[in-house]
Amino acid sequence: MLNETSRLKSRGGRVRLMVLGAIALAGSALSATTALADPVVRTQQGDVVGVEAGPLSVFRGIPYAAPPVGALRWRAPRPPDAWNRRSATAFGPACIQPVSAVQDAAFGPLGVQSEDCLTLNVWTPTRNPGSSLPVMVWIHGGGFVSGAGSLPAYDGSTLARHGVVVVTLNYRLGALGFFAHPALDQESPDGPVNFGLLDQIAALQWVRDNIGAFGGDTGNVTILGESAGAESVLALFASPLAQGLFHKGIAQSPYGIPSHSPAKARAAGIEVAKALELDGEHASAAALRGIAAEAFATITGRGASLAPSLVYGDAVLPARILDRFEQGQSAALPLVIGNNSNEASVAELFGIDPASLVQKLGVAKIAVRLLFPEATDDADLARHAVRDAVFGAFVKRIADQHSRRAPAWRYYFNYLPEQQQGTEPGAPHGGEIAFVLGTLDRTPAYRDIRTPADDRVAERMTAYWLAFARTGRPAPTGEPDWRRSTARRSRTMEFSDDAVLRTRFRDRQLNILIRVIRILDSIVGH
User: Fold this and answer.
1) Whole-angstrom Cα distance, residue 9 to residue 1?
2) If 0-12 CB within 10 Å is exposed, 13-18 middle and 19+ buried, where does residue 186 land?
3) Which of 57, 261, 307, 489 is placed for a possible disulfide with 143 were both Cys, Cβ 3.0 to 4.6 Å?
4) How far apart are alpha carbons 251 and 246 in whole angstroms?
5) Which of 331, 137, 159 lies closest to 224 in space, CA to CA?
6) Residues forming the active site
7) 10 pLDDT band (50/70/90 cuts)?
8) Superfamily of domain 38-333
9) 363 φ, ψ to 5°?
10) Is the pTM of this model over 0.85?
């Protein structure tokens, strides 16, 4: 009996050991499964490991080009080095730029900066490489001197949850991104000036080569952006180097501030060298590349900045954007383009009083007032004038020219969050971003005041933008019909509390301004 008891205890011990072993093995398997659950996508450079965010897989900080540092400063972007397996769980640094409390308050904190900043981010609702979902590539604004694809207001989650793959990106800014100098001319006569645009093109090439692995359709890529991002969209339409890399575009509040000539860019580069305490036009390329990147964020002085304009005359942008559109040399692809009702707010952000601009007009103020009889005072008159002369007239000129070769849709965004209605003169510059990207809850300016009514407007805006990304037509089910605009039949969708299609909306003022601008162009030249 004692022997039998011992034998049973021994058997029980073995059973317990077997059970414990099975549990341990199961735990190991579970841990392995959990590790493998992190989304992994194979790119041409190597595997990237992202994170799960509810129904989405998110990949942050993927290099699309080699770091533009040292000898690669002011050179066309080059492919990144290969890797075996790379974590893509954190955003890459923002490109070098001045610190802006205004930007942080409007769009969210910028975070770390570095010259090594050429990364992009991907939000995808699928792990199936064969899904062929529409792709939306967001290009941030900021006057070509500030911003980043990682700002909370540009989060791609909302759009991705509606069945598209979203990409945001960084590109070189300020004098590190848009620069000419005699020393660079000696290295490469007729070389590039718009390095930031070359970065955007490199990012689109990365999308072409890799986005299919994230479930995106390489044959259905929409580029979209606001302000300098919208200017970038139009520049990519106009650039021969970007052809075939995208299939439609959305330009939100592009501005009609002319691009700089190569001579103007070179003069600005000389002023940059002086501001860096180098020998102006005689500074060497080695000396310029030897300056710490952070120093470029602090450059001040008259004539040292090209912002907020691009430079025409290089291979990226052979002529001014408007000239390329008017000469039929831009991409003949579907385009949505528009502006907001209080674009003059961008002047206020830079400390410029709109009323003072009107007061400087002198006698011309009378003519301006005749154009805008609805203006209540000088400040209001200036807001109307800046909105239409800098933004509205340019939007109409581009849309009219583009409509001769490809479909064009115009819009006018005139919605303020409920809690701001009656306290602000209209939708500010950039005020539409949170509505079209669906990021009211992540945008500092709106997250604490949003209401169900604001959310409904956002749902409508995202529906139009998503429909355009999917089909090439902004025609979501159940929403008012947004008909194309042409030079002969001008139509504008006004987004306010409702969406209303307007015919010849503000055309009298815009056409007069267009004629005046053309006369000025012919007098002062390019």
Assistant:
1) 12
2) exposed
3) 307
4) 14
5) 137
6) 227, 343, 429
7) very low
8) Alpha/Beta hydrolase fold, catalytic domain (3.40.50.1820)
9) -65, -35
10) yes
